[in-house]
Amino acid sequence: MRLTHGGAVWLMVVVTLMWGTAGVVTRHLAQAHSFEITFWRSLFTTLALLVILPLWRGRAVFSQLRRGGRELWISGVCWAVMFTAFMVALTLASTASVLVTMSLGPLLTALAARIFIGHRLPARTWLAIVVAGAGIGWMYGTQLMQGGGGSLAGTLLALCVPLAGAANWTVVQHAQAKGHRIDLVPAVLIGAVITALFTLPFAWPFKAGAHDLGLLAFLGVFQLAIPCVLSVLCAQVLKAPEVALLALLEVVFGIALAWIGAGEQPAPSVLAGGALVIGALVFNELLALRGRRTTVADTAVPGAH
């Protein structure tokens, strides 16, 4: 069944809402610590994808793991970096700081296209990069002046998510240029497995009780595995600027849910810096939609994390 354009838009809204639950759910964990949170989430994501993939693509999907080549596994490593950095950053910084930082993904991807592939960037994208950089600088600088060492460390760690996303996009584009198509969902499965194996030594001994395991299972299945699959379906119908614009709803949903559901009120500096970042992104993607065609630099890998 192929989605209609309207159906893809609404489904992408649901996807961003599911992604946005990470912060509020994490704040209700009682005993699990940073690497343990990351381990269990990735383990439950792995188990969910092992069920979803054969039902969706058939058992032949697992043969792609053997035939995918080096680029598929490099993409999997990029996903692993995103998964780990995102969850650990959430334990160190506010949900708003992490989500605003991660929203830089489309602009860092455009920079990667310019640096590594040589694509020319339109003036609107350069302007958006400057404005978004000012917003992030304001947010980081305020945290530094206020002595929020842990919060600043978490926000800096969150920067690894869009950086790894830009690297992932570069790998995917390089593979496609050579005639090799990377299937993103098996790459996500590889990333989840790598993350679980990497964080296991740091997660031991486990402290999570039944309450925490239930929440972590929710994160693995409903916050990551299922929306990851749905976002790939949406990206097959929607233009890249549309996906980028709709993905910004995760920032809105994530901050609102953490505020309402966990009492985590965002700092004024985060709201001010975030307004600059989001405004720059909206400006860039709206102009891209108004253009006659979307450039390769406007194309981004769906940002599950």
Automatic annotation (TrEMBL):
Which InterPro entries does this chain map to? Answer: EamA_dom, EmrE-like
Respond yes or no to whether keyword Membrane is given for this record.
yes
Keywords, in A-Z order: Membrane, Transmembrane, Transmembrane helix
Membrane-spanning regions, if any?
A: 7-25, 37-56, 72-92, 98-117, 124-140, 152-172, 184-204, 216-238, 243-262, 268-287
Question: What is one GO cellular-component annotation here?
Answer: membrane
**EamA domain location, by residue?**
8-139, 153-283
Protein name in the entry: DMT family transporter
User: Which organism encodes this protein?
Assistant: Variovorax gossypii
